[in-house]
Amino acid sequence: MSLIVQKFGGSSVADAESIKRVAKRVVETRKAGHEVVVVVSAMGDTTDELLDLAKEIVPIPAGRELDMLLTAGERISMALLAMAIRSLGMEARSYTGSQAGLITDAQYGSARIVDVTPGRVRDALDAGAIAIVAGFQGFNRGTGDITTLGRGGSDTTAVALAAALGADICEIYTDVDGVFTADPRVVPKARKIDRISSEEMLELAAAGAKVLYIRAVEYARRHGVTLHVRSSFNNSEGTYVVTSNEEQNVEEPIISGVAADLSEAKITVVGVPDVPGKAAEIFTIVAKTGANIDMIVQNVSAAATGKTDISFTLPKSEAQTAMTALNAEKASVKFDSLQHDDQIGKLAVVGAGMRTNAGVSARLFRALSEAGINIEMISTSEIRISVVTRADTVNEAVRVVHRAFDLDGEDEAKVYAGTGR
Ligand code: ADP
Ligand code: ASP
Ligand code: MG
């Protein structure tokens, strides 16, 4: 008998029919003799709808109340799924994040898990029941408040429970057959990857492949949890995310996948005096706002003026706060002006084989230039190259690059549900 954690994303529990379908699948696993813990997301696009609703009330809702609101989404699905399982004659008990022992820090909206005490979940399993846990949420002991783990956070809930309970596997059920070489909604010829190293998966997730949430991949890697990403619409094998050690003897593809991200904005600080210490001043101001800076580019300074421009990217949602903070220090830093651009897209190619293969960037840049796509910023890591383009060209860029690296497959990738929102 093994212990299996099964996480079902929003598209897999979008309506009553889907919930009944998921219930059958969970019951089959239980009847096969396994202990089953299920983590559910909110139904369909519920989280987005609740966010929209809150914004109709007030443009920037209080973090505490927003978390209270959003966690309701997952509570709806957990209760409905427990009812569906009971109606199939199996015992099921649903738990909120706090009841399941997901203890977090106090950061509303993007809380980090600091402890997992799944005593009640363990008791339910010992009593022969299926435990259903609401994803994406936790509880802070200091404030006594409910928190959320950030968008896509149900993946993290599943991994954290798998680690704490010593599960044999953590299955992430979604609306595609696994992790593909690119988002199948953007590249129909994308191919399913059977096994991917956690290192590459981390880079893909960080670059916008939302099929797995980056924090979940990090957590799984740290705690040695094996992830299996698969479709909830069939029984096919999906993608196993394995640790690099297991992967050692496999020849690594040069490029494993291409990802795109439309969630970032670019800020340009224009006319910064080109003297030592200015970058430190600017990024200290931005860091104090808590912004997560991604790429940074500094232009060569114009000889006539001795001034330079510094551009950086960060999540769109953090750009306004960073702009305000910088403007407040304009006189002391002595820059000329600020520009804000939220029409950028970021494309990344990821592959561990890049380490030992020259010419990857040349091939990437050639493919983009042949398609007439302009590159605005470039950054690289050991196994990733990212470029910023105009937002409305990034999907085409992904298709072009996917083809240029010979990743196109024979068949069309299937997307079973979801709105891609
Ligand atoms: P869930 O509701 O199950 O959490 P998500 O919408 O969060 O599902 O993630 C699944 C979606 O991720 C897919 O429908 C697909 O459009 C998108 N996606 C982006 N990049 C990839 C990729 N490389 N492989 C598979 N899916 C991807
Ligand atoms: N419902 C949350 C979201 O839409 C969490 C999740 O689905 O993982 O982001
Ligand atoms: Mg998700």
What Rg do the Cα atoms give?
A: 23 Å
CATH architecture of the domain at 3-175: 3-Layer(aba) Sandwich
User: Structural class of the helices, strands and pairings?
Assistant: alpha/beta
Which CATH class of the domain at 3-175 is shown? Alpha Beta
Helix segment tally: 13
Describe this structure in words.
There is one protein chain. The protein has helices spanning 16-31, 46-57, 63-87, 119-126, 154-165, 198-206, 214-223, 244-247, 278-288, 316-328, 330-333, 360-370, 394-404, and strands at residues 3-8, 35-40, 92-95, 102-104, 113-116, 130-134, 137-139, 146-148, 169-174, 195-197, 227-231, 239-242, 257-261, 264-273, 296-298, 307-315, 337-341, 344-350, 377-381, 384-390. The model has no long low-confidence stretch (mean pLDDT 94). The strands form 5 sheets. The protein has an 8-stranded mixed β-sheet with strand order 3-6-2-1-9-11-12-10, sandwiched between helices. Strands 13-18-20-19 form a 4-stranded antiparallel β-sheet, with helices on both faces. Strands 15-16-14-17 form a 4-stranded antiparallel β-sheet, covered by helices on one side. It has a domain at 3-175: 3-Layer(aba) Sandwich (Carbamate kinase). The protein contains 13 helices and 20 strands. The relative contact order is 0.12. The structure holds adenosine-5'-diphosphate, aspartic acid and magnesium ion (MG). Aspartic acid is lined by residues 9-10, 41-42, 47, 73, 135-136, 151-155.
